[in-house]
What does this fold into?
Amino acid sequence: MRDDRERLLDMLEAIHKIEQYAHDELFSSRGDELVEVWMIHHLQIIGEAASRVTQELQKKHPEVAWGGMIGMRHVLVHGYFETDTELVQKAVERDLPILKTQLENILAGLK
It folds into this structure.
């Protein structure tokens, strides 16, 4: 069974994969469908991993938007006809850098 540390690492890995294309000017200007699907898939992974982080760890770190990640995953998985790619891109640009720092700080404290 995977523990919290592994789930946090899964989330960081997904962030790193998104970062490969998030700042690609070609993506932002032409709206590459393959890259959009890539980002959505990895946002789903982040939300799924967040949903499996123990309540204990979530309560220790209320600064992390656990519910937001889990909710976004739910919308992306179950509301696929309603996915707003502009909203996805804003989340990637605005929220992921903050989340990345938060996860790195939590992981540093778990060692």
Q: What stands out?
A: The mean pLDDT is 88. The two ends are 19 Å apart (CA to CA). The chain has one domain: 4-110.
